[in-house]
């Protein structure tokens, strides 16, 4: 695997030939109206880190090229496949059409959520995160196979969407026996 330092990442413009060298995991991210460009850029970095197959940017989520996303992503937006969809519902339906056996998991707090470590993650899987204040839309939650959350042991009741997604993405890798070395 090619590993680039931060200087190389900030300047890199991958060629299609270089992209063919990377194997990808059958993991997809769906961003349901994530507004903060720092979160979006950081999610591109997470997607690159876990070798995710694709990111769906939905609704009001900003899309590249965007200077703030570029900086926060350290240009990994160029290395990770992404697609814009009008809604997260559209993204879920598109994925189910392309990959009928995909498991859709929303990362959200709610009555029906289970602790993330109790979920049975299997590839292919799509992980959904939502708006920083309002969360994943109810319409999108209705299409999810399950909903997971992270235990909050302190005073605060939630984590940043990119932090939550990163934790869950690595848990999915671990449960699918992906070698993390």
Automatic annotation (TrEMBL):
Keywords: Methyltransferase, RNA-binding, S-adenosyl-L-methionine, Transferase, tRNA processing, tRNA-binding
Superkingdom in the source lineage: Bacteria
GO MF annotation terms: RNA methyltransferase activity; tRNA binding
InterPro entries found in the cross-reference section: Alpha/beta_knot_MTases (IPR029028), SpoU_MeTrfase (IPR001537), TrmH (IPR033671), tRNA_m1G_MTases_N (IPR029026)
Record-annotated tRNA/rRNA methyltransferase SpoU type domain positions: 27-170
GO terms for biological process, alphabetical: tRNA guanine ribose methylation
Pfam families: SpoU_methylase
Annotated protein name in UniProt: tRNA/rRNA methyltransferase SpoU type domain-containing protein
């Amino acid at each position: 695997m090619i590993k680039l330092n931060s200087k190389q990442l900030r300047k890199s413009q991958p060629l299609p030939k270089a992209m063919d060298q990377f194997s990808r995991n059958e993991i997809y991210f769906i961003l349901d109206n994530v507004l903060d460009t720092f979160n979006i850029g950081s999610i591109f970095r997470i997607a690159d880190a876990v070798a995710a197959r694709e990111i769906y940017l939905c609704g009001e989520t900003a899309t590249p090229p965007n200077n703030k996303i570029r900086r926060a992503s350290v240009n990994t937006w160029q290395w990770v496949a992404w697609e814009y969809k009008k809604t997260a519902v559209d993204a879920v339906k598109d994925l189910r059409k392309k990959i009928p056996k995909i498991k859709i998991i929303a990362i959200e707090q709610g009555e029906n959520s289970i602790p993330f470590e109790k979920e049975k993650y299997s590839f292919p899987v799509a992980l959904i995160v939502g708006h920083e204040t309002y969360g994943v839309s109810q319409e999108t939650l209705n299409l999810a196979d399950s909903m997971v959350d992270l235990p909050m042991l302190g005073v605060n009741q939630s984590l940043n969407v990119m932090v939550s997604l990163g934790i869950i993405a690595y848990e999915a890798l671990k449960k699918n026996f992906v070698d993390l070395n």
